[in-house]
Write a structure and sequence with these properties.
Layout lengths: L1 E10 L6 E11 L4 E6 L5 H8 L7 E6 L2 E2 L5 H11 E5 L10 H11 L6 H6 L15 H13 L5 E5 L7 H18 L2 E6 L10 E6 L2 E7 L12
Parallel strand pairs: 3-8, 3-9, 6-7, 7-8
Antiparallel strand pairs: 1-2, 1-4, 4-5, 9-10
This protein binds adenosine-5'-triphosphate (ATP).
Adenosine-5'-triphosphate binds next to α1.
Protein name: ABC transporter ATP-binding protein
GO molecular function, one term: transmembrane transporter activity
Organism: Schaedlerella arabinosiphila
Length: about 230
């Protein structure tokens, strides 16, 4: 379980100091599918970075199963991220000079997972092990980055606008993979987007507005990636 408590985060100094997260508290259950929705600039990415341990809050704490990750040293925070969480961004951040197999192996090596090829199969790229990123479509590249993130078997997968650079058909396919992979590998999903349609796939929807949580609700019925609007 993740508990964020009284999170405050600002950027800038002096007169230009700007409070992006204004005292946010939130609990996230293990294995949940959470979508964080909000307009551009509402603080979604900053909140994701804080609860994933990428950035420190000015004050407040983030607990994973009771362990306060905001109290970690930089070294401890890096190890924590390596061992427990995976990240997917709008950009794929693949290494251009490594093929699919080697890109995913990089993630697998963080957890000493020798069995990482099954994840490549699971994202439908078993036939493309020896292709380089430049030889793949955008959707295929994003699926490689998903396989890389999952190869170390994280308990939480953080996604920041994962379909932002993809067309409709490819975006739906990537979301479909993410849902199927969650069933298979049982991680928690925390996905940030400004796309209201994607929220219909979530179990829990968190709405952010100007650095605060304005609403939290649970979807009674969840749609799949091919049922949502786009
Ligand atoms: N590293 C930073 N330095 C200074 N200001 C920042 C930094 N990161 C974010 N901000 C500011 O904090 C505010 C919230 O940014 P954030 O990226 O969290 O919003 P968002 O809701 O994810 O927006 P978007 O959907 O456009 O990505 C914005 O006004 C942004 O300019």
């Amino acid at each position: 379980m993740i508990n964020a408590k009284d999170i405050i985060k600002s950027y800038g100094n002096g007169e230009s100091r700007f409070q992006v997260l204004k005292n946010i508290s939130l609990d996230i259950e293990d294995h949940d599918f959470v979508v964080i929705l909000g307009a551009s600039g509402s603080g979604k990415s900053t909140f994701l970075n804080v609860i994933s341990g990428l950035e420190r809050p000015d004050s407040g704490n983030v607990f994973y199963d009771g362990k306060d990750i905001t109290a970690f040293s930089d070294h401890e925070a890096t190890s924590f991220r390596k061992e427990n969480v995976g990240f997917i961004f709008q950009q794929y951040y693949l290494l251009p000079n490594l093929n699919v197999d080697k890109n995913v192996k990089m993630g697998a090596d963080l957890a000493d997972n020798k069995n990482y090829k099954t994840v490549i199969e699971a994202v439908g790229l078993g036939e493309k092990l020896h292709k380089y990123p430049s030889e793949l479509s955008g959707g295929e590249q994003q699926r490689v980055s998903i396989a890389r993130a999952l190869a170390k078997r994280p308990s939480v997968l953080f996604l920041d606008e994962p379909t932002g650079a993809l067309d409709e058909q490819t975006g739906r396919q990537v979301l479909d993979y993410i849902c199927k992979l969650q069933k298979e590998y049982d991680f928690t999903i925390i996905l940030v987007t400004h796309n209201l349609n994607i929220a219909e796939m979530a179990n829990t929807v968190i709405k952010m507005n100007s650095g605060k949580i304005s609403e939290i609700y649970t979807n009674k019925t969840k749609k799949n990636a091919y049922e949502i609007g786009w």
